[in-house]
């Protein structure tokens, strides 16, 4: 048995032991991890500084990787929130009594061992550990090399708390190594029940293509806002600005503004706050002509085929002009990633149609895509944003980390031949 198989077998064993731990104790553990995160913040930030030293501060990856005292305090608060939420384990989803007297109950249960593969986002280490513990799952964390020092420090703190409470540290296992380790994790049938990739399109495609264990896709977000014929300009400008500039390196950031040609004259005012923030725009021909002379010339260029369907993850975005809501929906469904889309309109029929026909996990009216977040949805924290349709869609939190089983109670009933 290889070293990786030994680790995964130990995690599998820990997952079974976790089923017998009272929920009250798990909540104490999560609160203790939150406390240790704050008390050991200097240790975590020192490790984080070592990781940051290898990156250019202008690289969007830098912001994803960076931790601060404020961000650690927010992470700790999220953990305490998760501790205070009801456990999803053992929830009766459905029950019925058959005519023959058999009693059926459909009950939520943990997956068992959840593997999460992610890039330079050390906050994911905290979120996954908290959500998996609360939902009764052991977890295998395969972070990227960009955050190796930070993840090692965080995992060490979690292990120390688990040991203090008499819980097997392998309940939360961190893996180190390169692509070969990731590929072997993806092939670990019988040892890993579910793998969740959290990162960019390349990571998700790799996991989908190579996994032999079940996968739930999360992460990639090519997000649009459609500015309709009956949109409010002031509201639209603020929503577009927040969607794009609040935090450009995350998956809910705006990538393409779609504007109805009937409101083309609004485009300079709609984009003015973006220019002031330094956002680079790749505009189609009609948008380019309308913005030329009003938008900063150094930030404006003509769109190419690659402009649409790109997750920019930086201070850049595309602009597309359409002639109808039909064309807008077609464009979004063609180039979107199924993550988050928004319409700016005062027309309730347009809003209803957009919500019905746009194929995405989260569809907004008159609100920024930046709201797509498990904590903001009141879920405590999230393990990722699912962009697929099987099992989970949108922010994945505690309930989505459980599957279910049928429990059947009888009294000797025999099925007829």
From the N-terminal CA to the C-terminal CA, the straight-line distance is 46 Å
What helical percentage do the residues reach? Answer: 25-40%
Mean pLDDT: 94
| Assembly annotation | single chain
Biggest pleated-sheet summary: 7 strands, parallel
Counting DSSP H or I runs of 4 or more residues, the number of helices is: 14
Helical/strand content category: alpha/beta
Count of DSSP E strands? 16
Strand content: 15-25%
Rg over CA atoms: 24 Å
Task: Name the shape in a single word.
Answer: globular
Q: H/E series, N to C? A: HHHHHEEEHEHEHEHEHEHEHEEHEHEEEE
Uncertain stretches = none
Spatial strand sequence of the major β-sheet: 10-9-11-8-7-12-13
Overview of this structure, please?
This protein has 14 helices and 16 strands. The protein is an alpha/beta fold and 417 residues long. Strand 3, helix 6 and strand 4 (138-142) form a beta-alpha-beta unit. The two termini are 46 Å apart.
Topology of helices and strands:
Blueprint: H1 3-18, H2 23-39, H3 41-52, H4 60-65, H5 69-84, E1 92-97, E2 103-110, E3 113-118, H6 123-134, E4 138-142, H7 148-164, E5 172-174, H8 179-186, E6 194-198, H9 201-210, E7 223-227, H10 233-245, E8 254-260, H11 267-277, E9 280-283, H12 285-291, E10 300-302, E11 316-322, H13 325-335, E12 340-344, H14 348-357, E13 362-365, E14 384-386, E15 394-396, E16 402-409
Parallel strand pairs: 3-4, 3-6, 4-5, 7-8, 7-12, 8-11, 9-10, 9-11, 12-13
Antiparallel strand pairs: 1-2, 2-16, 14-15
